[in-house]
Amino acid sequence: MTLLQIADGDSAFERTRKAFTEQGFERDILFLCKDKKLDKIVIAHDYGEMETSERGVSEYVFYTIFELANHDVRSALLSGRRGDLAWVCQTAHDMAVGVSQLHTQEIAHNDLRPSNVLCFSDTQKIADLGRATSANHAGPWDPLMHPGARAYRPPECWGYGYIQPRQYGRVTFDARAQSDLFLLGAMMLFLVSEISYTQKLRICLRPEYDPGNNGRVSFVDALPHINVAHAKALSDVKSEIESAFDAKYSVVYDEYIELCKMLVDPDPSVRGDPRMQQIGAPRSSLQRIISRLDYLGKKASLIARK
Ligand SMILES: Nc1ncnc2c1ncn2[C@@H]1O[C@H](COP(=O)(O)OP(=O)(O)O)[C@@H](O)[C@H]1O
Ligand SMILES: [Mg+2]
To answer: Where's the Protein kinase domain (predicted)?
Structure first.
């Protein structure tokens, strides 16, 4: 962001101050991730600011230098990776580990989507912490229900007037983590379908239960209908996968879809892996899902070699 860009408005000082605050917060989070050696989060090497001059006006450019990825996940899919189930499971595994690493530090990403997952030669990493929130540090996005891109929001954040649990005036970390689970599950479905699951759900939902058409419908009243849309949307994705992959992979993709299903449950209170609760861990813990994705990736490689 440059001063020329942010000076375009009647409160340039306020916008400059906001830009500094937002970038400063993102950098703090990035350097915490680096300190804690979170290996599925992109590494920030350095940052600074540079004075330049454009059309005779002096301006500042604020920059962060990151380790360089080959490309993001969208390019990988365009070059045919969608058909490689072992890669799909490995990528889903890396994203789940990245989300879990952030959650262990009580950081929520809030904006996991295709452009924010980067591909390196031997791994994938999560990038763009520009919309993150932290339970331990107040940040610029705390007041927002869902700081990330609208097109990927979980259903409770579609505008039903749903009240997220709050503590000391801030949305709780648990509520943020539940949103991240939805974004992770939607990303996993994106890898095999190349559609935004949020868009797919909204297309399958009876229009009168979409808050975009009916501003008075509550989340509680809409939820049974979102669940119907969810069942239809998932079954469509499943049929697509069945026609795209040889039946010999069914043992992999059937379970993959089951894992996605837990993560994209429209009801945030039951989202996540119920088996984690049975062993006394939070339902939002990704540990079992991570180990199943690791297994499924290896299984898919074995099947491919047969
Ligand atoms: N470290 C990186 N290596 C290679 N490409 C990157 C890297 N970081 C970002 N990109 C590319 O730039 C795009 C925008 O970067 P991002 O950090 O997500 O900023 P924005 O706030 O614009 O979304 C990404 O979608 C990705 O394609
Ligand atoms: Mg981005």
So the answer is: 1-296
